[in-house]
Specification:
Layout: H1 4-22, H2 44-56, H3 63-76, E1 80-84, H4 87-97, E2 113-117, H5 126-130, E3 134-138, H6 149-155, E4 160-166, H7 175-185, E5 188-192, E6 200-201, E7 204-205, E8 212-216, E9 229-233, H8 236-246, H9 294-303, H10 307-325, E10 332-333, E11 341-342, E12 347-352, H11 360-369, E13 394-395, H12 400-408, E14 409-413, H13 420-437
Parallel strand pairs: 2-3, 2-4, 3-13, 4-5, 5-8
Antiparallel strand pairs: 1-9, 6-7, 6-11, 8-9, 10-12, 12-14
Helix pairs in contact: 1-2, 2-9, 3-9, 4-8
Length: about 450
């Protein structure tokens, strides 16, 4: 009978063999193969890690979680990284942390106002509403698709306490302007970095500027764990509060399998509990259970090793789309990187010019008929979405560009799985379409 180490070695060998058989590369067939806007890109390393974690059967945070958080911390240059079960949960936890009573007068309270944008993904805004605060929607600029900084300044009121915005499709917002405003008015800044993991602003990685930042590891994003996310901060107090909210509201910060890390497990006073009540069962926040499993972290630990390569591929794919669409300057507004930034583009975003006869839905339907995936800029205008119509929010001045984007904008993918033959095919399809409407 083989010992378990020998069996494990055999399983890993078979896993590699299985990867090579199951996930062998297939040829692209123009007009038959789908050109996805996003997708998972992986090799045997992710599969081996997932199997290794399964064989460990350490289902909660374990050795792979430690490895993954260390790699994220090193990549971004941040001190604290906490893994969670999704990017949306990361946003919820980041915002929840700022409502903690531990922050005293700095805490966010119901009725406070938070600067955000309506031209984006709902997960950046829903935590604001869920906590009883008021999102103040500022318009965006075209062709950066990020917050209008002049309008943002005018939107500040005596009730404004926080700025919570995303780097749109990987393109950094004007971080200098946001931080200047935040400093002037003593505002919290939550940096939604879910679509921009690997982007840079003034030579520094996005996700390192705000008080807290968030990442998503959904399959469409720069790296994936399937479902998954992370919260990043250099603030030790905020990290502790995020951990509490993530872990049922628990005050104890021992990791799984640890006890009495603080050395004061049975000697402290909390709330109205008896002196010495077990610290592992003290709850200082109204929290959740939003942790990541070690199997997910195992996949992420392999994925992040490829992140620099993935980011470079996204930049090159963005250039290919720019080359293709720049042939029709009378019809399309092409995206532009924010000044002083180097985006690891999540997507290539296109807006139809006012003077064109093209219709967004016509061209996206034509692409879809040829198995070319497109997407709108997420929710278009959140204030018009059925779930948001009757919520409390404010609009700063106007949302003219947001409305224009809702009706005239779409994007194609830049993910590393795209190939030259795919770009060539889309170029031909677009050329034929443009000739047909001329």
């Amino acid at each position: 009978m083989s010992d378990f180490k020998t069996i494990r070695k055999d399983i890993i060998s078979k896993t590699i063999e299985y990867y090579n058989a199951k996930f062998a590369k297939t040829d692209f067939v123009p007009g038959k193969s789908r050109i996805n806007y996003a997708g998972r890109v992986f090799d045997q390393a992710e599969l081996v890690n997932a199997v290794e974690a399964s064989l460990d059967f350490w289902l909660t945070e374990g050795r792979f979680s430690e490895s993954f958080t260390e790699k994220i911390s090193e990549f971004l240059g941040v001190e604290h990284v906490l893994l969670t079960n999704s990017g949306s949960s990361a946003n919820l936890l980041a915002f929840s942390a700022l409502t903690s009573e531990k922050l005293g007068e700095k805490r966010l309270r119901p009725g406070d106002e938070v600067i955000s944008v309506a031209a984006g993904f709902p997960a950046t805004v829903t935590p604001i509403i869920q906590h009883g605060l008021i999102p103040v929607f500022v318009d965006v600029t075209i062709p950066t698709y990020n917050i209008d900084v002049e309008m943002m300044r005018k939107a500040i009121s005596s009730k404004t306490r926080c700025i919570f915005i995303a780097h749109t499709l990987g393109n950094p917002f004007n971080i200098s302007a946001v931080l200047k405003l935040a400093s002037e008015f003593n505002l919290w800044v939550i940096e939604d970095n879910c679509d921009a993991f690997g982007s840079e602003y003034q030579g520094k990685k996005t996700g390192t500027f705000g008080h807290i930042s968030t990442i998503s590891f959904y399959p469409a994003h720069h790296i994936t764990t399937g479902e998954g996310g992370a919260i990043c901060t250099n603030d030790s107090q905020l990290a502790g509060i995020v951990r509490a909210f993530r872990d049922w509201g628990r005050d104890c910060y021992c990791t799984g399998g640890e006890n009495n890390t603080c050395g004061k497990r049975f000697s402290q006073q909390f709330g109205n509990l008896p002196l010495g009540f077990d610290h592992k069962y003290v709850y200082s926040e109204i929290g959740y259970n939003l942790k990541m499993t070690d199997i997910q972290a195992a996949i992420g630990s392999a994925q992040i090793d490829k992140l620099p390569e993935f980011c470079n591929a996204r930049k090159e794919n963005f250039k290919e789309w720019s080359r293709i669409f720049s042939k029709y300057p009378g019809h399309f507004i092409l995206p532009e990187a924010t000044e002083n930034s180097d985006p690891a583009w999540f997507a290539f975003i296109v807006t139809l010019k006012e003077e064109t006869r093209l219709k967004r839905d016509d061209i996206t339907r034509h692409f879809d008929a040829n198995f070319i995936e497109t997407r709108n800029l997420f929710a278009g205008n959140l204030t018009k979405q059925p779930g948001f119509i009757n919520q409390k929010f404010k609009i700063a001045d106007n949302l003219h560009n947001t409305d224009y984007i809702m009706n005239n904008t779409f994007f194609l993918g830049t993910y590393p799985g795209l190939e030259k033959e795919m770009f060539d095919f889309v170029e031909k399809i677009l050329q034929a379409y443009m000739m047909g409407i001329s």
